[in-house]
Every structure is written in structure tokens, then in C-alpha cells.
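for ur thesis appendix - PLC-like phosphodiesterase. copy paste whatever u need, i formatted it the way the template wanted (i think)
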Amino acid sequence: MVLSLLVSSLLAIQVSAATQEPLARPSAFDVQGHRGGRGNAIENTLPSFAWGLIDGSTTLELDNGVTKDGVVVVWHDEEIVATKCRDTAPAFPGDATFPYVGALIKNLTLAQIKTLDCGSQRQDDFPFQLTYPGTRISTLQEVFDFVECADPEHLMRWNIESKIDAAFPDRTASVDTFVKKQHAVFAASPYTRSITFQSFDWRSLVAMKKLDPKMVTSALVDYETTQTSDNGLSPWLAGLDLEDFHGSSLGVKIVNAAHSIHANILSPSAYEIVPGASLTTKDMVDRAHQVGMLVKPWTVNLLDIADDLLSYGVDGIITDFPNVVRRWVQQQGLEVAPKYPKRRVLSCLERHTVA
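the 3d part is after this line
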């Protein structure tokens, strides 16, 4: 079975004339380091991306927020979470906003955010996570600059998420602000065509495709974001009603809905139980491939789950442990991306780390 999956992964996806142009499947199986690889180092920081490179991730997955002064920063949460960051000192004397822990990213300037220590606290769920005391939240530009130092040939691939809250829009910057600010940084980087833009808020995928039709987009979905609100629609699905799409299962309907907004990739939860089964199913993967989409589930940290997903024919896996999943991929006889030289990566990390 593994051999047949390898052969099929190298074949072009067959689609009808009515479907969008399919994405070519890369030769290396897509092992994505979730938040850089938060099982191994403090998430969404330069050290986590350094270890993602050293561990041989195919793709670095990360999250973006937008500050009060319009800067794209790399962070997962809408607010500064006390279990991840510590206050140090105010950005300027008498700052009435201080302390900053607990504040929303959208209500803090970059200067205020840069005072936070977000590298000292190991997360309870990740007991092997390396800490890097004093580590600051980085801008997206700073992350690109660091990785370019370690990756001068620009081979690294990216999966970058807009952390927009469709259910509580006043907690984050708007769709328009997110998309325009992120795209400006993407377009100025040497990685502009190696980036996948992903979001749970499908409005941002529509807006990004409108701004840049060539941008590869990935529709994130879990069971919660498929559920309807008082108006009979989910706030996350760009006004789409899944019941308007044909399909014998929820998974197939999700594929058809994501395809209707020209998403190139579907990224479903691997663990959501939709009575008794994962949201990611074989019929979902089969339908996605029929219409020219790839499927890359999240966040896969159990190899038993990874075994099932590979049997379905998924095109990649997003994981907190890219080093472990990479070894597993090799054991299946699949091609993996090369590792980056540890000495060079750590040298670049030292040069790009600002205390």
C-alpha cells in the first residue's frame, strides 16, 4: 500500500474541465512544523523555526496577528496569554496600557509587544519543549529575514495563517487589514510563491484570491466552524451554507464548499469527532483530489492517526513534532525534505535574535 501511495503521490491529479487548475504535488511529503514545531521549542518564535529547519520540516507553519500600528507579527493568540508571555517593563515611562499581558494584539503597538518575554515558560502539554528566556515576539519580516539567512537558496515552504476571529470580529484586525498587510510582506519577500495562505475565516481566503489570484490558499476547518449561528450560517465560511452543496457526507460537502471559493488546499482537523469519526475521512480526501485540491490535516501528533491519514492518501501532515513525523515518513518509504545544517541555522539564530 505504501508503494502505491508513493506512486500515486507523484502522479498528476486528474480533474474535469470544470475544476480549477490543480496543485502539483511536491516530491517530498509535506511535513509541516506547526508553529515551527511547538513540541520541541517555544512556539512561533525564531528558536522554534530554527529547530523546524534543523529537524527537516518541509514547510514552516505559523500564525499572524496585526498590531495597533499595523505591523504583522508572528503569534497565535488574539491576546497576550499569561501562560506564554511575561511582562518586563513598559515601552515608555507612564504607559497607561502596561502591563500588557492579557491585552489584545490589535490594541498594542509593536514597541509594546517587543517588551514581552515570550520564551521563558514551557507549556504543560509539551514537557520536552525547549525554552529560550527573553525571546521576543517577531514580526513576519523578521522571521523571513532569519530563515533567509539559513536558507539562502529560498527552498523553504511556508503555511501562514491569519488569526481573524469571525465569531468575535472586534477582537482582531479586520479581514481587509489582515489581507492587505500580510500580502504586502509576502510580496516583498523572496518566498512570495512558496507561501500558502490559510485561515479558518474563509472570508480572508476570498479576499486574498481577489487581491492575488496566484496565491495558494488553504481552507482550515474543524467541526465547530461548520456549525451554524442564529442566522442559520456559520460566521467562518464566508456566507456559505454547507447544505447548499451536494455530498453524501459532511466531509464531501466541506470539500465542495471550499472548492467553490477556489481554495487550493483543505486543512481539516484530524481529531474532531463527528459522531464517532475524525472530520478527515477517505471520502473527503478522494473528493478533494477529484476537484484538484490537496488535503493537509492538523495537528497530528499520534502516529496511529498518521497511519490512518496516509492510508486515505493525504498530501501532508501538520504536526508539533516534525522530527518524529519526518522519521515516520521515511519509514513509509516516502521522500522527505533535506535538513538544514545545524551550525549554520544556530549561527543565524544568534545573529537575528534581539534581546
